[in-house]
Design goal:
The chain has ten helices and eight strands. It has 254 residues and is α/β, with parallel strands linked by helices. It binds zinc ion. The site of zinc ion has 5 residues, from loops.
């Protein structure tokens, strides 16, 4: 398979309308800020869906009770989207950390409805691994993959990582355990369907979009330091969804 490498917004035209489906505010920025910015610069429509507001994403719930964190993260992701030029952002409104316990159908149906509405050419989400192994991420992957299979629209890509990524940042990942056991994935280069390589200017924009989500990114940035953090997600890699792993579809409710 040939990897489509995108470094400039002119290359991004081929992506057509882009839909991203993610679990928590900041997932979209880490994994697809460059992709979204280039697609918008190319004049393509981009829709971003976030399942939860990540209201439990803190070690200090005393300072950040869920209502306050939800309110703040909603403002943070709005600022982040504005930096990337994305104007169509939807929040599904699920409770953070509960996605595996949610019923499949309303969730798959909600994502399928967005797909039918925006008619994306390219859909991006987590792979079955959930990138970090987070159960919410794995659930969003399953929901989106089922919704895509049901609608039959567009090309579904799963965010992934490569050997190069795993090796380059191995020391960092040991120090700051972001990834669950067996992760990050080491997708062989020939299986990477789309790679977005960020130049310095675009990387600065991605970093601004990440920094806008300070409740989450601030502590990670402080731990890692500016230099390491800047290089960490310089390439955004995606593989085609493995259709063999798509679960049998639940019947659509009419
Ligand atoms: Zn997340």
């Amino acid at each position: 398979m040939t990897t489509l490498r995108i470094t400039h917004h002119l290359d991004a035209r081929t992506l057509g309308t882009v839909l991203g489906v993610w679990a928590h505010p900041d997932d979209e920025a880490y994994l697809s800020a460059g992709l979204m910015a280039l697609a918008r610069d190319a004049g393509n429509h981009v829709t971003c869906v976030t399942a939860t507001l990540g209201e439990h994403g803190t070690d200090d719930p005393g300072t950040w009770p869920p209502v306050r964190l939800a309110r703040t993260r909603r403002m943070e992701i709005a600022a982040s989207m504005a930096i990337l030029g994305v104007t169509d952002h939807r929040i599904l409104g699920y409770e953070d950390g509960t996605l595996p316990q949610q019923e499949l159908e309303p969730a798959v149906g909600a994502i399928a409805a967005v797909i039918e509405e925006v008619r994306p050419d390219t859909i991006v989400t987590f792979g079955p691994d959930g990138m970090t192994g987070h159960p919410d991420h794995q659930t969003v992957s399953a929901w989106t993959t089922a919704a895509w299979a049901r609608t039959g629209r567009g090309r579904l890509l799963h965010a992934t990582t490569t050997d190069t990524f795993a090796e380059e940042h191995a020391a960092l990942h040991e120090e700051i355990p972001v990834f669950g056991p067996g992760l990050p994935l080491r997708t062989p280069p020939e299986e990477v369907a789309l790679a977005v390589d960020l130049d310095d200017e675009l990387l600065d924009r991605k970093l601004a979009a990440l920094r806008a989500q300070a409740t989450q990114v601030g502590p990670v940035l402080a731990l890692m330091g500016e230099r390491a953090f800047r290089c960490w997600w310089r390439t955004e890699a995606f593989r085609d969804a493995d259709t063999a792993r798509v679960a049998p579809l639940p019947a659509a409710v009419s």
